[in-house]
Design a protein that fits this description.
Blueprint lengths: L1 E6 L6 H4 L2 H8 L4 E6 L12 E2 L9 E2 L1 H14 L5 E12 L2 H8 L3 E5 L5 E2 L9 E4 L9 H12 L9 H5 L18 E2 L2 E2 L9 H19 L1 H4 L6 H19 L1
Parallel strand pairs: 1-2, 1-6, 4-7, 5-6, 5-8
Antiparallel strand pairs: 3-4, 9-10
Helix pairs in contact: 4-5, 7-9
The chain binds adenine.
The site of adenine has 12 residues, from strand 5.
Amino acid sequence: MKIDIVTLFPEMFESPFGHSIVKRAQEDEFVQIETVNFRNFGKGKHRVVDDTPYGGGAGMLLKPEPIFEAIESIEEKSVRSKKRIILMDPAGKKFDQEMAEEFSREEHLVFICGHYEGYDERIRSLVTDEVSLGDYVLTGGELAAMVMVDATVRLIPGVVGNQDSVLEDSHSTGLLEHPHYTRPAVYEGMEVPEVLRSGNHQLIEEWRHKESLRRTYLRRPDLIESLDLTAEEQSWLAEFKSEQLSQDEH
Ligand code: ADE
């Protein structure tokens, strides 16, 4: 996969992409990540990239030309690749695991990171997606792009050694992940559930599945609404609900 990041602050990406799994994914050539500083396409001696809004109002807007030319330079370098051009925008569609999975199957992603008050509206004609990290406003799109690249790259098959662990992640299955334990068996009086030490893999799988549903029910009931529950899952859910009712009574 090829990833280009169009930004005024390329140095911001050095640390998050220079460590751990994303670093190794580049070394092992699962992904090639490059930054394009659109300041290089700014106008005049001062390489201006922003200007005041027509009609007045607060703040500065990113001018269209530097961003159009930055995208053109990416197109010229990789003419044949099919590109997703993704605008970082707090007013865009909210990023989630499903979108990360979709991005991880693409050939070439281009992230455009804005700064200042916003973009000249014509920049939107360049893009295939407008995406937000969440319902809050960051100082720029860089941190949002870092998060999206990180969540996407780890899903490229082969990047994370054990693909099963990726498939079992919270949000990949539609449920939150079940609790995990490692040694010691008892720590400060807190004991690892007996079933996990039983060696009975079928019982362990069942316990994990149930605890995954319990955790989702307690923490993110909104996620359960969109699931097609099996009869067994429905009976577990009824059990959690009655446990909760009896707890509330005490
Ligand atoms: N730029 C500023 N805030 C943002 C957000 N929440 N998501 C994406 N880009 C942004």
